[in-house]
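REQUEST ID: PR-0412
SUBMITTED BY: lab tech R.K.
PRIORITY: routine
TASK: structure prediction, single protein chain
INPUT:
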Amino acid sequence: SVTLLLGDPFLRTQYVRAQVEHLLAPEEQSTAWHKFDLHDVSVKDALTQVLTVPFLATKQLIVLQHVESCSDSEARTLTSALGKCPAFSYVILDSDTLPKRSHLYAWCRQYAQVKECAQLGEEQAFRWLKGELEHARIDVTMAQAQYIWQRCGENPFIVQQAIEKLSLHCTAQTTVSQEMIDQLVEEVYVTDRFAISNALGRKDAYQA
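STATUS: complete
OUTPUT:
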């Protein structure tokens, strides 16, 4: 199974996380989930893992990041191997964007699934944020949730860090105040939140 994953970096991260939880048992997630950044790892080395039987698991999930960096010959090597992808390997080709005239995109349209994640909308963002706060057992009002979202520069990656920090200071009996939010959640000033979101999605700490 091969999926080409494009679009919003945060939504792609969420999709991969959902696939890990769906495909792999908790005890398999440390040994049967592999990520390869094709900026740093050769296509040949990544494909070795795709073709390797997983250790102590019946299947494995492999994420190949930055597939747009492949040369034409590398893309053809990749698609040739993925055309014979073993049943135990689930492969996600992860990219911000991929030229529609490229060999890799055309192959994926014909032989794989293509999932395009649109930009995270405000309504979707608040629904996600509410769920994350409830999961962390942090009791806040909707107005406070919106305040956290705005204070984090409307960036879901930074919001996740804020939720982790709040969860360390909150118990079921804690009443979250705006003063507490101001103390624990650093305000982010963003001129282009999508540029920063993309940088964080690439783990580009210097640019972010």
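NOTES: Residues 9-23 form the longest helix (15 residues).
REVIEWED BY: pending
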